[in-house]
Amino acid sequence: MADASAQNDKVDVEEVPVPPAPDPTGKGRRKKMVNRTKLGNFNLDEDVNIVKSWLEISCDPITSTAKKKDRMWDRIVQQYNLRRGSYPERSLRSLQSHWDIIKAEVGKFSSFYADAIRENPSRMSDADKTTHATANFAGILKHNFAYMHCWEIMKDEPKWQDPKPRGFGKSTGGDGFGEDSSHEPDTSDLGDDNSSPTGSARRRPMGRDSAKAAKKKANSSAGSTSSSKYASRMQDLSLQKISILQEESMRKTDRFQQLACIDEKRFEEMRSHNQSLLDIEQEKIRIMCEKHDMDKQEKEKQEDERILGIDLNACTPAQRMYYEALQEEIFKKIAARRGKRWEKTGALNHGWERQPYLCFLDFISGN
């Protein structure tokens, strides 16, 4: 049990370089000092973050086989720090050391779990198998399995699904495992049919070339499907656009016809209104002309009556001659008007065929 306590309470130590201070004697520089900062223990969330970051980077079938170890761990540290939240930042060395512990413990537990499956393949549930493997782990290794939260994530990976059975031969630690029991089983060991009774039925991880080919095939199929869907969608949109344009054209045509009818009706109303105004103005002008003629005739009549009413005997000889001439013109004018009326009333049938003036004089004199 002391071993489990030492593993779970491991204290992370960060080495922070301190720049060298100048020698006060001036004879040289002091040696470079290193400040060691103690960080808190890894908790469950940090364990889960390490496991997820390692699986995401190292289990990529396309790029993981071409990565160097240092470069791969640089990416694991970067991935870990992206989602560490408020937890302290861990160095690459610290994460590698803690991952080695998790990997070794989970590798041991996976062997106990595989034994539980082989011993009781059908009579036990998954929870019972896990409980049985945990009890065997604690009984044989003398400490509890402290990384069940990591096992729940790693158990579905091919590397930990069916490891080699535990060996009870020569062991360096007396825990029932061989030399490689503290390390994670390699993919080459998992692929060996003779290393495990279920090796032929075990699912092997996909290789780089197979993964690339599968990805290329999937992209090609997805691209073809996407192109077909895109073309179909574009055709539907084109038909919808044509239908919308036709409906819009019909609406515009109906609107133009309505506007044309409204304009025609409005023009007819304006023309009728203008004609009415014109007729009214013409009537006004006619009435004004008649009134003007009547006023003129009334003034002429008054002037004629004034001239005819002048006493010629009281006038001088010159005035007498002037007014006699005016009176004679007045008589001619009256006779002309009477003659026109007599022509209309049949006065000529009475034998008046002489000059209108003479007829008028005869009429006045009573002849």
From TrEMBL:
Stored Pfam families: NAM-associated
Compositional bias annotation for Low complexity: 219-232
InterPro entries membership: NAM-associated_C
Domain No apical meristem-associated C-terminal: 144-330
Regions annotated as coiled coil: none
Region of interest called Disordered, as start-end residue ranges on this chain: 1-30, 158-232
Annotated protein name in UniProt: No apical meristem-associated C-terminal domain-containing protein
Gene source species: Setaria italica (Foxtail millet)
